[in-house]
């Protein structure tokens, strides 16, 4: 009977991978000293009666390391896109040139870099918590399976496998955090 009971580790791994993917998305939105088109992803513009991402209103380019440009397709939307960027809290001052909005990325000072590393650490901690929650779900499944007749030895094997999966994903989070903090602090 205990042969029939299995824990879906593939599902647990998929959910842990999802936490890491979400972390990478959050890291992409963090502004480092370099220009990146992904830094505009969280900015929404009130266009045509609804909130719209900038990349659906124009072409976002990175022509040089410290410059992002947005070529707005509809001339009537240029002012709204500029306003949304200005009010987004990115700390960037947009400059208009016809339908092209230029976003010069200022050098980050030491204090701002340290703040950004703390924000990155918070994002990483959220990812670790999400991974631990998935681990807890896996351990709960094992407990339930014990109640349905899973042997102690099988339960120990499953617990070890879930813990190894958790450790592997936490290590990925730590590596991603270390890389991002290095990128932020790089002058």
Automatic annotation (TrEMBL):
UniProt GO BP: cytoplasmic translational termination
Q: Keywords, A to Z?
A: Cytoplasm, Protein biosynthesis
Limits of the Ribosome recycling factor domain: 23-185
In this entry, which stretches build a coiled coil?
Answer: none
InterPro entries associated with the record = Ribosome_recyc_fac, Ribosome_recyc_fac_dom, RRF_sf
The keyword Protein biosynthesis is assigned to this record: yes
Cite the GO molecular-function annotations of the record: ribosomal large subunit binding
Task of the protein: Responsible for the release of ribosomes from messenger RNA at the termination of protein biosynthesis. May increase the efficiency of translation by recycling ribosomes from one round of translation to another.
How is this protein named in the record?
Ribosome-recycling factor
Q: What is the lineage of its organism?
A: Bacteria, Pseudomonadati, Pseudomonadota, Alphaproteobacteria, Rhodobacterales
């Amino acid at each position: 009977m205990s042969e029939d009971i299995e824990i879906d580790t593939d599902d647990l791994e998929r959910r842990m991978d999802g936490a890491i993917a979400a972390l990478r998305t959050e890291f992409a939105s963090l502004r480092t000293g370099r220009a990146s088109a992904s830094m505009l992803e969280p900015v929404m513009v009130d266009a045509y009666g609804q909130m719209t991402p900038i990349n659906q209103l124009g072409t976002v380019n990175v022509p040089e390391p410290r410059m992002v440009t947005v070529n707005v397709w509809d001339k009537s939307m240029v002012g709204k896109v500029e306003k949304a960027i200005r009010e987004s809290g990115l700390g960037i001052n947009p400059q208009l040139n016809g339908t092209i909005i230029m976003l010069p990325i200022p050098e980050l000072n030491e204090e701002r870099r340290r703040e950004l590393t703390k924000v990155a650490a918070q994002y990483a901690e959220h990812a670790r918590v999400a991974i631990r929650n998935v681990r807890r779900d896996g351990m709960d499944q094992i407990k339930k399976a014990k109640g349905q007749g899973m042997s102690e030895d099988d339960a120990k094997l499953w617990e070890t496998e879930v813990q190894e999966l958790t450790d592997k994903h936490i290590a990925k989070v730590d590596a991603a955090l270390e890389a991002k903090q290095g990128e932020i602090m790089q002058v």
